[in-house]
Write a structure and sequence with these properties.
By secondary structure, this protein is of the alpha/beta class. The chain contains 14 helices and 13 strands. The chain is globular and about 60 Å long.
C-alpha cells in the first residue's frame, strides 16, 4: 500500500471530490465545493515528491521532470480511480487528485432530464457536454455512454487524457485509449478511430482546430461522437467551435456543424442546502431544423429564444433549470445568482443584492 493511499481513504470517507497536496502547506480536501484543511503536518517538498513518485509511472515522472506538469490516472482496487495532476510551483512540487467513482451512475440515478438517455440511441451526429472545470461533465457523459453500452450492440471507442470512467463491455465492445500512453495525440487517435469500425466515439476534450474538425467530420460520416468543451451555454459552444477556424473557413464549418450537431448540454454544479451533496443545473439544446438554420445563417444569438420555445423537444435554458432548483429548495438564491447567465432575473430573490461592478 502506497503511503498516499491513506489520504485517498480519508477523501472517500469525507465525500470529497478533490485532494490538494502542496509543498509548504497542509493537505486540503474539496468537500461540497469548499476547500477544507486536513489536520496534518505541513508537507515538505522532498517528502511530498517521494510520496507522489511512489504512485507515478516512470515515463510520467520523466515527463514531469522535463515539463513541470503531468496528468495520469491512479486506481485503488475496490475504492476508486483518481485523475492526478502534478505541477511545479514556487515552493516546490504540488498535486491535485480528482476522485472518479468506480461505479458509473445511470442517468436516472443522477436525476438527469429524460431526454439525455435518448441521446445514447442516436445513430450519428455530434453531442457536446460543456461547462466549467469540475461541473460534472465527465459524470454526465459516463452515464450516457453507459446507457449506450447497455442498450446497443456496437463498438465504442473512448479517447481521453487520462482515462477516467472505465466502462466494462456489456452489449457493446468498449475500447479505452489514453493520450500519451496508447496514442500520441487526440488528433492521431481520432484519425485512427475512423479506421477502427467505431459506432460511437468519445473525445475527452476538443482542444484544437484539428480535433474539432475531425470530430465534425466523423459526426457527418455516420458516427455518433460525444465531446466536451469549457463553455457556459449552448450558443457560446457553437460560437466557440466556429471561432477556432480561420475566417475563410468559418462559413464551411457552420454548414458542416449545422448538419452534424445533435445536442449541446451545458451544465453547472451547485452545493445543495437541503442535504449533503451537490446537484447540476443543465441547459439543453436539441438541434432541430430551426436551430440548424440559425447556426447555418450566423444567428446563434437567437438560440436562447429557440431553446425557450423548444420545451416539447426536451430543451431548457440554464437559468430556467437554476430557478427550478431554487424553487425546490435545493440551492440558495445567492449561489443561483452567482452562476446564472441573466443575473437580473435572480436579484429580486436576494436579501441584499450585491453591487456587481462587472455589469456597470
Amino acid at each position: 500500500m502506497a503511503k498516499i493511499d491513506a489520504f485517498f481513504q480519508l477523501m472517500n470517507e469525507q465525500g470529497a471530490s478533490d485532494l490538494h497536496l502542496v509543498s509548504g502547506q497542509q493537505p486540503a480536501l474539496r468537500i461540497r465545493g469548499d476547500m477544507e484543511r486536513i489536520k496534518f503536518n505541513v508537507l515538505e517538498n522532498d517528502d511530498l515528491k517521494a510520496m507522489l513518485y511512489e504512485i507515478a509511472p516512470e515515463h510520467k515522472i520523466k515527463q514531469f521532470e522535463e515539463t513541470g506538469d503531468v496528468d495520469f490516472a491512479y486506481e485503488i482496487p475496490n475504492l476508486a480511480r483518481y485523475r492526478a495532476n502534478f505541477f511545479q510551483q514556487k515552493y516546490g512540487v504540488a498535486a491535485v487528485f480528482r476522485e472518479i467513482p468506480s461505479k458509473i451512475m445511470s442517468c436516472q440515478e443522477l436525476g438527469l432530464p429524460p431526454v439525455l438517455p435518448k441521446l445514447a440511441t442516436l445513430p450519428r451526429g455530434l453531442v457536446l457536454v460543456t461547462g466549467p472545470t469540475g461541473s460534472g461533465k465527465s459524470t454526465t457523459l459516463a452515464a450516457i455512454i453507459d446507457e449506450a453500452n447497455r442498450a446497443r450492440k456496437d463498438h465504442i471507442i473512448t479517447i481521453e487524457d487520462p482515462i477516467e470512467f472505465v466502462h466494462v463491455s456489456k452489449s457493446c465492445i468498449v475500447n479505452h485509449r489514453e493520450v500519451g500512453l496508447h496514442t500520441k495525440t487526440f488528433t492521431s487517435a481520432l484519425r485512427g478511430a475512423l479506421r477502427e469500425d467505431p459506432d460511437i466515439i468519445l473525445v475527452g476534450e476538443m482542444r484544437d482546430l484539428e480535433t474539432i474538425s475531425l470530430a465534425c467530420e466523423a459526426a457527418n460520416t455516420g458516427h455518433l461522437v460525444f465531446g466536451t468543451l469549457h463553455t457556459t451555454s449552448a450558443a457560446r459552444t457553437v460560437d466557440r467551435i466556429i471561432e477556432v477556424f480561420p475566417a475563410e473557413e468559418q462559413m464551411q464549418i457552420r454548414s458542416s456543424l449545422a448538419d452534424g450537431i445533435r445536442a449541446v448540454i451545458s451544465q453547472v454544479l451547485f452545493k445543495r442546502i437541503d442535504r449533503k451533496g451537490r446537484c447540476a443545473a443543465l441547459e439543453i439544446m436539441i438541434a432541430n431544423s430551426a436551430v440548424r438554420n440559425l447556426i447555418r445563417e450566423s444567428k446563434t444569438f437567437q438560440i436562447p429564444s429557440m431553446i425557450q420555445t423548444g420545451k416539447k423537444y426536451g430543451m431548457q435554458l440554464l437559468d430556467d433549470a437554476i430557478m427550478d432548483l431554487v424553487n425546490k429548495g435545493w440551492i440558495g438564491p445567492e449561489d443561483a445568482y452567482m452562476k446564472a447567465n441573466d443575473k437580473g432575473r435572480f436579484r429580486p430573490l436576494l436579501k441584499s443584492p450585491p453591487a456587481d461592478f462587472t455589469e456597470a
